[in-house]
């Protein structure tokens, strides 16, 4: 059957390809350390699971309002007020089947054919594919290690054209782990206001910050930013609920109405009992999160320190999320078992054959680097880095 032009343009996911290869090798009995998973390796906390089970037994298994159950929307409103200093009403909240779904609906709601979206690179690849699916055009603004992978405000302003519709901000960032400060976000908000463009702020890693960093929502910084930002968040990363598929957006009422209408005809409501469980997750005080953050912090330091022992590796110290982004380009041009390493994909492929899976930076718009997720134990980090070291030493 013929595939539409719009969909056939979507690039196959490099992330999934490498992850699938790593899985296949493991299945064959090969010893592979996989630094590939973008999901916390912890169980969903017990109190959340219990809430879902109760909801199931209580018959909460039917369609719900498209934009989400009132209990969850109220919990989100309260959370945004307490955690982010953002005052919204329930009419500003749209619950979805994951932040990814909210992002797509956000792009669809505000982009017309050919509208431009400014995306700082390195970026999460999904943004680019979703913008294309929604008929928009991604304008990539490169950032570099020197600036700590943060969007340079002059580069941002220079990228704005009459077709610019919005800028995408992802802090803490996948893949770099970069966390923007309040002042940096304020500068971005001011430029957005000057040029009358919208902001989409992906805040799914907001709770995974280290070294006393504080996550700030750009929407909280100026009246313009509040009126012109679509805040995207969800429960996947914070509560280790990646499979439950609950995300949400907070946005101006007209956007919420438009997105609800779209969801009504695409996904209907998000999973009913997962919504009840998410309401419990968001509104409960529990130490599961702080324990998870402490464990990630330990792994982050270990992985960062160990990677820096390796010849030619260059990293920016990550302050959030659960990734380390490493520039490995010093080794391009060398060979592994007679095969030349030409870029991040061939680096990752050769490394995988040596027993370590990482995601090529090409998937994030930076072919000089690879991404390692510390969603594995400290023991695996030690073993994995030992192998990477041996791999690098074996290059000719
Ligand atoms: C930056 C970023 N945004 C959004 C998501 C999607 O989260 P969800 O599981 O809620 O769809 C991810 C997941 O990897 C992510 O890395």
Structure overview:
The chain is α/β, with parallel strands linked by helices. It has 2 domains: 5-43 and 288-394, Alpha-Beta Complex (Aspartate Aminotransferase, domain 1); 47-283, 3-Layer(aba) Sandwich (Aspartate Aminotransferase, domain 2), CATH 3.40.640. It is 42% helix and 15% strand. It has 14 helices and 15 strands. The chain has helices at residues 5-8, 14-27, 46-57, 70-84, 99-110, 125-133, 153-159, 182-194, 223-228, 253-266, 272-283, 288-307, 344-353, 378-394; strands spanning 33-34, 93-96, 116-121, 137-142, 164-170, 198-202, 229-234, 247-250, 314-315, 323-327, 335-336, 339-340, 356-357, 359-360, 369-373. The strands form 4 sheets. The chain has a 7-stranded mixed β-sheet with strand order 2-8-7-6-5-3-4, with helices on both faces. Strands 9-10-15-14 form a 4-stranded antiparallel β-sheet. A two-stranded parallel sheet has the order 1-13. α8 (182-194) links the parallel β5 (164-170) and β6. α5 (99-110) crosses α10. The mean pLDDT is 96. The site of pyridoxal-5'-phosphate has 13 residues, from α5.
């Amino acid at each position: 059957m013929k595939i539409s032009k719009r969909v056939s343009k979507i690039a196959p996911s490099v992330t999934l390809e490498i992850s699938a290869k790593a899985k296949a090798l493991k299945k064959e009995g090969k010893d592979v350390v996989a630094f590939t998973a973008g999901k916390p390796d912890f169980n969903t906390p017990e109190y959340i699971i219990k809430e879902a089970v109760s909801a199931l037994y209580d018959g909460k298994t039917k369609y719900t309002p498209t934009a989400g159950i009132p209990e969850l929307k109220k919990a989100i409103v309260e959370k945004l007020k307490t955690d982010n200093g953002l005052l919204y009403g329930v009419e500003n909240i749209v619950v979805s089947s994951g932040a990814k779904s909210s992002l797509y609906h956000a792009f669809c709601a505000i982009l017309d054919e050919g509208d431009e979206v400014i995306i700082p690179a390195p970026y999460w690849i999904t943004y680019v594919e979703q913008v294309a699916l929604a008929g928009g055009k991604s304008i990539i603004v490169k950032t570099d290690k020197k600036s700590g992978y943060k969007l340079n405000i002059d580069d941002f302003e220079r990228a704005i054209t009459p077709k610019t519709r919005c800028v995408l901000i992802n802090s803490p960032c996948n893949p770099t782990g970069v966390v923007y400060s309040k002042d940096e976000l304020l500068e971005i908000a001011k430029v957005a206001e000057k040029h009358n463009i919208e902001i989409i702020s992906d805040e799914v890693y907001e709770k995974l910050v280290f070294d006393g960093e504080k996550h700030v929502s750009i929407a909280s910084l100026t009246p313009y930013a509040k009126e012109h930002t679509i805040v995207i968040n969800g429960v996947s990363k914070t509560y280790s609920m990646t499979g439950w598929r609950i995300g949400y957006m907070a946005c101006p009422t007209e956007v919420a109405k438009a997105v609800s209408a779209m969801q009504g005809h695409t996904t209907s409501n998000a999973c009913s009992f997962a919504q009840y469980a998410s309401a419990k997750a968001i509104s409960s005080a529990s130490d599961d999160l702080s324990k998870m953050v402490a464990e990630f912090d330990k792994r982050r330091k270990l992985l960062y320190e160990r990677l820096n022992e390796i010849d030619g590796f260059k990293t920016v110290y990550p302050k959030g999320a659960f990734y380390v982004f490493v520039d490995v380009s010093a080794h391009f041009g060398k060979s592994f078992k007679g095969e030349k390493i030409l870029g991040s994909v061939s680096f990752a492929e050769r490394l995988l054959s040596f027993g370590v899976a990482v995601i090529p930076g090409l998937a994030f718009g930076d072919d000089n680097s690879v991404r390692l997720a510390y969603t594995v134990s400290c023991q695996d980090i030690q073993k994995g880095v030992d192998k990477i070291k041996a791999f690098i030493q074996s290059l000719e």
